[in-house]
Amino acid sequence: MLGKRIIFGIRYSNIFAMIKEKPPSATVYQTNALGGTSKMYSYCSNNLLNIKDVFIKKVVHADFYVKVFIETKPSPQTCPCCGSITKRIHDYRIQTIKDLPFQTKHCFLVLRKRRYVCSCGKKFYENYSFLPRYLQRTNRLTAFIADCFHEQQNITTIARRANVSTATVNRVLDTIHFPKMMLPEVLSIDEFKGNAGNEKYQCILVDPAKHRVLDILPGRNQQCLTQYFYSFPKMDRLKVKFFVCDMWQPYVDMAQIYFPNAKIIIDKYHFIRQVGWAIEAVRKRLQKSMPKKLRKYFKHSRRLILTRYHRLSNEKKRECDLMLLYNDDLRKAHYLKEKFYEICQNPKYSEQRTDFWDWIKEAESSGIPEFEKCAKTYRNWSKYILNAYKYSNISNGPTEGFNNKIKVLKRTSYGIRNFEHFRTRILMVTDM
């Protein structure tokens, strides 16, 4: 699959430095066609090199590199100008080619190239299956560089492993292209902070059912989303049955226009965290009127309030109870938080729906401004939150997993400014 995505044979201007043939510390092994032992050595060496129609003349081992001197057998060549067949050799040229690392050393192939001359006067070099025209690296080295993009490593590391420049690695990256995938029945969308292409946020499209990344969009604004989804035929867009997103209004507006048959689902993580934010806001509000030592204690022990009460040890439960005794608002906020989590874990949708509306009414009448605001948010998004309860097997979980891989890639690469490079790297890293 990788080979289909790589376009070889592009002319590059980068010229690699030539290596001296015989450094003082090098060890030379030379083959001889005479004798059974030499023939066996030549046969084994050629198979170890694994290049068709090439035989080894000698091998030079140095401390940090290996140079393999190779030749090919003369064969009739077709003139690129007139199409005639010629066997006439005009001259030779020595070319040093970079190959895959060998025994943890950089490997160089020293090829004695023939230049043929046709009766029409055209002079040309013979073609090689392992070496693209105008390049000074083998096809398999290019494939090795492309395969390294599956790993979460930066361009400099890949260039160092392949013994090429970072510019060469970027040129190989430019040759990898991913076609636009078909829209699935379940479509998940989320944004992440990429800082690529002059945009702070990028969008990731995921098929959560098959756990695969569909595409990466340069932004999350309405114009970007509209332009992308409008490019799909209407019949394809009508096949989308579920649209999973967070509480970002442009996502919902876009889904209603371009995916009219899809049920919009708010991911559980994104609406459950509203309760966590609310109780944290209550704690911060109360801390402002606390003495200094008590304020530090509440700040350092905030996990006791955020964590589910039944998951705490007996000792931690006693500490949590002491914190809740400090203020009625905090105690009531903790009660509302625990009750909402219980609603989310209820497997029966009919009970969830009833308890959800009861919780909203209770939060609105609690007298706690933070939870009143949270209840208002839930009421505004109630239709899509209830869809999350009803279709509990559909979520943005796979998307969040891919976002974590993107964060690791971004961190190891110290940021990627070029959006196309960033998109390709993400699709390569997340490719299953």
Q: Distance N terminus to C terminus?
A: 12 Å
The mean pLDDT is: 87
Inertia-based shape: elongated
| Total count of domains | 3
The amount of beta strand, in percent, is 15-25%
Helical segment tally?
Answer: 18
Biggest sheet statistics: 6 strands, mixed
DSSP strand count: 13
Low-confidence stretches: 1-24, 32-36
Backbone CA Rg: 32 Å
How much helix is in the residues?
40-55%
Structural class: alpha+beta
Verbal overview:
The protein is α+β, with helices and mostly antiparallel strands. It folds into three domains: 2-174, no CATH class; 186-267 and 395-429, Ribonuclease H-like superfamily/Ribonuclease H (Nucleotidyltransferase, domain 5), CATH 3.30.420.10; 268-390. 45% of the residues lie in helices and 20% in strands. It has helices at 2-5, 36-49, 139-148, 155-162, 166-174, 222-230, 234-238, 249-258, 268-287, 292-300, 302-306, 314-324, 328-345, 349-364, 369-380, 382-390, 397-412, 419-429, and strands at 27-30, 54-61, 65-72, 77-78, 85-86, 89-102, 105-117, 123-125, 186-196, 199-207, 212-217, 242-245, 263-266. The strands form three sheets. Strands 1, 2, 3, 6, 7 and 8 form a six-stranded mixed beta sheet that branches. Strands 11-10-9-12-13 form a five-stranded mixed beta sheet, with helices on both faces. Helix 6 (222-230) packs parallel to helix 8 (249-258). The termini are close together.
Write the SSE topology.
Blueprint: H1 2-5, E1 27-30, H2 36-49, E2 54-61, E3 65-72, E4 77-78, E5 85-86, E6 89-102, E7 105-117, E8 123-125, H3 139-148, H4 155-162, H5 166-174, E9 186-196, E10 199-207, E11 212-217, H6 222-230, H7 234-238, E12 242-245, H8 249-258, E13 263-266, H9 268-287, H10 292-300, H11 302-306, H12 314-324, H13 328-345, H14 349-364, H15 369-380, H16 382-390, H17 397-412, H18 419-429
Parallel strand pairs: 3-7, 9-12, 12-13
Antiparallel strand pairs: 1-2, 2-3, 4-5, 6-7, 7-8, 9-10, 10-11
Helix pairs in contact: 4-5, 6-8, 9-13, 9-15, 13-14, 14-15
